[in-house]
Amino acid sequence: MISVDRISKSYGSGENVVHALDNVSLNIAKGEIFGVVGQSGAGKSTLIRTINSLERPDSGTVTVDGQNMNLLQGAQLRSARHNIGMIFQHFNLLSSRTVQSNVELSLEITGMDRGARRKRAAEILDLVGLSGKATAYPAQLSGGQKQRVGIARALASKPSVLLSDEATSALDPETTQQILDLIRQLSRELGLTVLLITHEMDVVKRICDSAAVMSQGRILEQGTVEGLLTTEKSLLGQALFPLGEIPLNGNTIIEITFNGVTTDRPVIAQLARTYNIDVGILGAAIETVHGHQTGRTRLELPGSAETVAAAIADLRGQGLFVEVIGC
Amino acid sequence: MLDRNDPSFWSDLFQTILQGAGETLYTVGFSLLFTVIFGLAAGVVLVTTETGGLLAKPFGSRTLGIVINKLLDLLVNVGRSIPFIILMILLIPFTRMLVGSFIGPTAAIVPLTIAGIPFFARLVEIGIREVPVGLIEAAESLGATRWTILAKVMVAEAVPALALGLSTTIVGLIGYSAMVGAVGGGGLGDVAFRYGYQRYSPEYMFAVVILLIVFVQLFQSLGNFAARRLSHR
Ligand SMILES: Nc1ncnc2c1ncn2[C@@H]1O[C@H](COP(=O)(O)OP(=O)(O)O)[C@@H](O)[C@H]1O
Ligand SMILES: [Mg+2]
Question: Where is the ABC transmembrane type-1 domain (chain B) (predicted)?
Answer without folding.
Answer: 21-223
